[in-house]
């Protein structure tokens, strides 16, 4: 099984550019989420979705957009990249919305110059 | 919202020794406490979890304890091995919400 697949693994952007981080899961999970990981700050929730057509903001949503048109896909969009968005981004999914193990992708390292 | 603090940020032990990582949480309504292990270049992976109706849970060399009164929980790894070297994250969540709040992470190094 592929599990949670993130693309790209590495990306370098210039300030002001836009891009989309892709996330797909093949486990029929209801819940999907995006985290960013920064040194000394753990994993912080950006946006999450409890099902197709439903999204909500997490802890640090500013500068990011998401959509959930299908159960499988949950892309994260940066409309105008800023150096503060330099980070490692993880997509995670789980079967249930209130309990259950989170399955993480392998991460996408983004550098904004 | 929930706030989870994790200590220490780095921990170095000799192979065969025990390692303990501690976390405190702020919201007394939290009742699910997982621990994740992140190996270099990989995403975090669940290694053990505990719910608030249980005080301790063991799985081979790892165990988690929970003190609801004091609002803290700990990860214990016995007989550490070099492959235990990784970043460990604690987390907390309420039943009524779907948001999982993570601690800052602990870099564990097991020296051969």
Protein model, in words:
The complex is a heterodimer of chains A (113) and B (112). Chain A has no helices and 11 strands. Chain A has 113 residues and is mostly beta strands. In chain A, strands 2, 4, 5, 6, 9, 10 and 11 form a 7-stranded mixed sheet that branches. Chain A has a 4-stranded antiparallel sheet with strand order 1-3-8-7, with no helix packed on it. Chain A is globular. The model of chain A has no long low-confidence stretch (mean pLDDT 94). Chain B is an all-beta fold. Chain B is built from no helices and 11 strands. Chain A binds chain B through residues 4, 31, 35, 40-45, 48, 50, 58-59, 90, 92, 97-99, 101-102, 104-107, and chain B through 1, 4, 6, 9, 32, 34, 36, 41-46, 49, 89, 93, 95-105.
Which features characterize this protein?
heterodimer; A: 113 residues; mainly beta; seven-stranded mixed beta sheet; four-stranded antiparallel beta sheet; 0% helix; globular; B: 112 residues; six-stranded mixed beta sheet; five-stranded antiparallel beta sheet; 11 strands
Oligomer: heterodimer
Structural class of chain B: mainly beta
- C-alpha termini separation of chain B: 41 Å
Q: How do the SSEs of chain B run, as a string of H and E?
A: EEEEEEEEEEE
Helix proportion of chain A: under 10%
Percent strand of chain A equals over 45%
Rg of chain B, nearest Å: 13 Å
Strand content of chain B: over 45%
- If helices are DSSP runs of H or I spanning 4 or more residues, what is the number of helices of chain A? 0
The chain-level structural class of chain A is mainly beta
Number of helices of chain B: 0
> Major sheet of chain B: size, sense and barrel closure?
6 strands, mixed
Q: Sketch the major β-sheet of chain A.
A: 7 strands, mixed
CA-CA gap between termini of chain A = 36 Å
Biggest interface pair, counts: A-B, 24 and 27 residues
Shape of chain A: globular
């Amino acid at each position: 099984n592929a599990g949670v697949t993130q693309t790209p693994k590495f990306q370098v952007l210039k300030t002001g550019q836009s891009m989309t981080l892709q996330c797909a899961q093949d486990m029929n999970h209801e819940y999907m989420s995006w985290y960013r990981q920064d040194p000394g700050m753990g994993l912080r929730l950006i946006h999450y979705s409890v099902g197709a057509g439903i999204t909500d903001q997490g802890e640090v949503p500013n500068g990011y957009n998401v959509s959930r048109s299908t159960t499988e896909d949950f892309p994260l969009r940066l409309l105008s990249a800023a150096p503060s968005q330099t980070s490692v981004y993880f997509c995670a999914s789980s079967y249930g919305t209130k309990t259950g193990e989170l399955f993480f992708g392998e991460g996408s390292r983004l550098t904004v110059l | 919202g929930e706030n989870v603090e994790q200590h220490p940020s780095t921990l170095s032990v000799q192979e065969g020794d025990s390692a303990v990582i501690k976390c405190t949480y702020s919201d007394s309504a939290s009742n699910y406490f997982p621990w994740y292990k992140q190996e270099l270049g990989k995403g975090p992976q669940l290694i053990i979890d505990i719910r608030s109706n249980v005080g301790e849970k063991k799985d081979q060399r790892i165990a988690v304890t929970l003190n609801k009164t004091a609002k803290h929980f700990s990860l214990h790894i016995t007989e550490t091995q070099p492959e235990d070297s990784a970043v460990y994250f604690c987390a907390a969540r309420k039943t009524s919400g779907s948001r999982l709040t993570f601690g800052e992470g602990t870099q564990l190094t097991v020296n051969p």
